[in-house]
Fold this protein.
Amino acid sequence: MSLRDRDDGDGDGREHEGRTHALTVLSAAVEESSRRRIAVLVAAVLMAAVLLPMGARAISTQYHDDSLWANSLRSLAGLQVPFDFAIFLGAGEAIRHGESPYVDPDVVISEGQPPPYAYPPLLALLVTPLTLLPEKVAGSSAPAVLFTLVLIACTGAALFVLGVTDWRCYPVALLYPPTLENVEYGAIGPILALLVALGWRYRDRVPGAAAAVGCGVALKVFLWPLVVWLAATRRWKTAAAATAIAVGLALVTWAVIGFRGLAGYPTLLRRLADVEAQNSYSTFAVLQALDVPELAARVLVVAACAVLLVLAWRAGRAPDLDGDVSDRRSLTLVLAAGLVLTPILWLHYLILLVVPIALARPRLSALWFVPLALTVFEALDWYRGWPRADGPALASVAVVVTLVFVVSLLPRGSVPSGHSA
């Protein structure tokens, strides 16, 4: 080997070492920057967890009306235990004391009485640890504040998981009346929205998607069309795993409480539906308000759901559509099918509209503002907790929901890929 060859070899070695050192320094800088961002994010979350209830308490003392805003602020401040959450907490308390969270189905359930706990045991078991918290801290309900903060965090997390990077979308979604109603009542809509979002994000990973969808169905049965979505998009293993997880969670959680209340559970649900179905915003309630006979109304609801599921199946297998577009349209249609079929539909269920909106329009657009129309309807007294066949209330909500789903299915706008992350 000549001297020049040796010099060239040494030069190449030094150049390689230099590049390696530069890459090492760059990697360390990236890691340090990532740690700093995580630290800042954690600090911001902790600060928000402290400041939000404090701010809500300061503001809520100035308002004493029965509006959506005022009640949401009182729930966030812990000045009142949210209505639905109080039911969940009571069920968790019963389990902690070795009792059944379910009432005797022979007990008359009627309008005007607090509804009984009617969710599967899973939710009550998840809430049980909150019963160990002190009931009041500085005049505020500690369990209520913590649960409300979880709901707000789940709403933001759902948008993040769905690939929404436009920060303007987050405050808009948090201001939706259905979002505020979840805060007011302590309902689990944001948790369900996050589970649906996780099912979408990890749809190409069997464990992640199956766990998210299975947990969602176990918490709220009307989400079962999500399993159809997985099958329609040829994710057979994920669909089977999600079904197994949902059934397994149901069996395990019933076993944990000794299967107490299981025999009368179907009767409990049927009686609850008899009282609340016609007074809610369900498709059945809309048809009843239009004087459609009860049997015909039920048949039409099932038929509408079946049509939406068939369309979802076709969308999931459309050969002329891009894979992401096909998945998105199919998911949007099965969510519509679930909302159409459920016999009881309250306004806080409609937080699920953030899923089709976020997938169809990941950046702020006119579609994001459609659910805000419900704020105007509240001012017009068309936004009611119990519509009781009120025509304007039912019509206004039906128009908003239909518009969101129809526009979300249109081919306009960019769609985040959101495959395995």
About this structure: Confidence is low (pLDDT under 50) at residues 413-421. The chain is about 65% helix and 0% strand. The two ends are 51 Å apart (CA to CA).
